[in-house]
Amino acid sequence: MGFPIGYTELFLPKLLIHTLSFLGFIRKFISWFFRFLGLGDFLESDIVWPDRPTHVPEFHSVSAILIREILPVVKFQDLVSTDGETPDSCAVCLYEFEGNEEIRRLTNCRHIFHRNCLDRWMDHDQKTCPLCRTPFIPDDMQEAFNERLWAASGIPDVYDQ
After folding, report:
1. pTM
2. CA torsion through residues 131, 135, 140, 144, sign
3. In this predicted model, what pLDDT tens digit does every residue of 87-112 receive, in sequence order?
4. Which architecture characterizes domain 62-153 according to CATH?
């Protein structure tokens, strides 16, 4: 038997392709016609394309900035000398750690990552370990963190008035 196929399902895609091809032909013809008349430079000079910015400013949320202040940055070589059981590679980028690279060690779960990898993770408003999803902020520091976050937001506290 087979599947029923309507006539419009076969006809409409072909019609769309032919219409787009015809519009492309008309565009090329108009472009050629204006160049033939010597107006091609006039048409092209009206369009001013903005330059693509070379540096896009990074967005850092207030919570990410505060978390960065809490999480220490150490050199990998210093971390290896104090702890014999450190992983060989970053779980975010999968590159191996090298001696002089900056590392962030999470206070709750003790996982380590390249500083840049974890900072990019936090820039996406993530507040948990990328590996085990343990919160960055320990429970005993959560209330102080929330107070600092509220103060940094610039919103006046209604209850303090």
Report:
1. 0.54
2. positive
3. 788 888 888 988 888 998 888 888 88
4. 2-Layer Sandwich (3.30)
